[in-house]
Design brief:
Blueprint lengths: L2 H7 L2 H9 L12 H17 L5 E5 L1 H4 L6 H7 L6 E4 L5 H9 L10 E5 L12 H18 L4 E5 L10 H13 L8 E4 L2 H4 L19 H19 L6 H4 L8 E8 L5 E11 L2 E9 L2 E11 L2 E9 L5 E11 L2 E8 L5 E9 L1
Parallel strand pairs: 1-2, 1-3, 3-4, 4-5
Antiparallel strand pairs: 6-7, 6-13, 7-8, 8-9, 9-10, 10-11, 11-12, 12-13
């Protein structure tokens, strides 16, 4: 029995509701510029990652937070797996459905998709538990339809609020039914609620400072909780908690970079890179004691971007927008500039 048939057999009411339609299952974009810019960025990430991406994370601000409070854990657990973060703060199931149909997964062929969505649908009377269940189910269905070779690691919606409260109860009811969407083969289930809550049922501030978004420690709990299943899906070695907090990012170090000069012949020079969380600093040697500093450098997983400004003898300057991917001891990338019209050059580097 295929997944769609299985999901519709979960409940006759679910089947009827999916046909009837409501906001949680009606794909819709958001109109604010911040969201639109983030959506464009995610589409760019998908295009750059392509078939190299082994795992994607789909969700809202809690998923986007892997780039903030969770960046250190992400770098240790997921950078070498070419993971792609597809989280946007404030999103609901309907927004994720629209994103999945409009570029977020285009060209991707990941082995696993980690999904945690629905908490924003639970605000007030916006959606009923039944509707949120259907919304999350629709996201799973969309992923399975568009990425048939990808296994979905479905997470229960995280608890929220310091103490027992109606919204947390609403989420617990949804999770009770949502776990039935998992078939143990193509869709796997993980519920982290018991890992986040204290013995008395409270939500510790050290894990969720605002009782919704995660601290670095909580992201570590999340990563550790799914690692057995994720490493099994990916067919790679399990990342241990000890390994997750030690060792530099693979981008960090001393490199020899190479780019074709004006005459078409390759030119090589030293490149020094430092990584602190998602921030990248460093410098390119231009010749002798002259160096060009990296500005605005960021890294997510194994992909990075930065700018380099070079002064010219006539007093003008050239700014290069540089992007690339690190894979072990090798870097491949592109450098773009608008000096005398758009120009794009490929470059590479080898670790010393």
């Amino acid at each position: 029995m295929n997944l769609l048939a299985r999901l519709l057999l979960v409940s006759p009411m679910l089947s009827a509701a999916l046909l009837a339609g409501h906001s949680a299952i009606d794909p819709a974009p958001r109109t604010d510029k911040g969201w639109q810019d983030r959506q464009a960025l995610l589409n760019q990430r998908a295009a750059e990652a392509g078939a190299k991406a082994q795992v994607i994370f789909v969700g809202d601000s809690i998923t986007q937070g892997w780039e903030g409070e969770g960046k250190e854990i992400w770098a240790r657990y997921y950078a070498h797996r070419n993971a792609v973060n597809l989280g946007i703060g404030g999103d609901r199931t309907q927004h994720v459905l629209w994103r999945l149909a409009n570029g977020n997964i285009q060209g991707l062929k990941p082995k696993a998709a980690v999904v945690m969505i629905g908490t924003n649908n639970s605000n007030g009377e916006d959606n009923t538990p039944q509707q949120i269940l259907e919304g999350v189910t629709a996201v799973v269905r969309r992923l399975r339809a568009d990425l048939p070779e990808t296994k979905v690691l479905l997470l229960g919606i995280f608890p929220r609020g310091e103490n027992f409260n109606p919204q947390r109860g609403k989420l617990a009811m949804i999770n009770q039914a949502l776990r039935r969407v998992a078939d143990g083969k193509e869709v796997l289930w993980v519920d982290l609620a018991d890992r986040f809550l204290a013995d008395d049922g409270t939500l510790p501030r050290e894990l969720m400072p605002d009782y919704l978004h995660l601290s670095p420690k909580a992201y570590g709990i999340w990563a550790e909780a799914i690692e057995d299943q994720l490493s099994s899906i990916l067919g790679d070695s399990r990342v241990t908690a000890a390994a997750a907090v030690t060792g530099p990012h693979p981008l960090q170090g001393e490199w020899t970079w190479t780019i074709n000069g004006p005459d078409g012949n390759p030119v090589s020079a030293p490149l020094s890179i430092r990584v602190e969380g998602s921030k990248v600093t460093g410098r390119f040697q231009r010749g002798g004691d002259r160096w060009l500093d990296i500005s605005g450098g960021t890294v997510e997983g194994n992909r990075f971007r930065w700018t380099v400004k070079r002064d010219r003898p006539d007093g003008s300057s050239m700014t290069y927008e540089m992007t690339g991917t690190v894979d072990g001891d090798a870097i491949t990338g592109e450098a773009k500039t608008d000096f005398n019209g758009p120009q794009t050059s490929s470059w590479s580097a080898k670790k010393k």
